[in-house]
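Fold it.
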Amino acid sequence: MPQRLLPNCKNCNVVIDDSNCVRTAGSRLNSCRACYNKYKRRVNTANYQKHVTEVKDYHKRYHIQRRYNIKPLEFDMRLANQLGGCAICKQPFEDENKIVIDHDHRTGIVRDLLCYRCNNALGQINDSEDLLIEMIEYLKRHGRKTA
């Protein structure tokens, strides 16, 4: 009986026997189990990262729509109208995940998109115009020029 030739791995060119051979569908070329596992890990990692990004984006958009009644298109239009920056300090947003949707807590009406720092400042003074004017006067009294 003639001896059967064993195939070589298409990646590392090592001779592989039947117990260590992986045949992929649609391919006449064979891989050894180590090369195939390495390939699958690489593919699965890339797909997993893509999946995680898509899921996070979906949940963020869902949360915005549910909590603030802003559809994704409206959010994108607001962001474009603000030229991709905070409505108060005009600094560009570094990351879409760091955008804060400012709203009036009494009425629930959405005002604009702010950076965390500006939104936090408004929250610290409880959206009080009088307190903000007092703070400006304080800075003027102590020689600090306003912007």
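The chain is about 45% helix and 10% strand.
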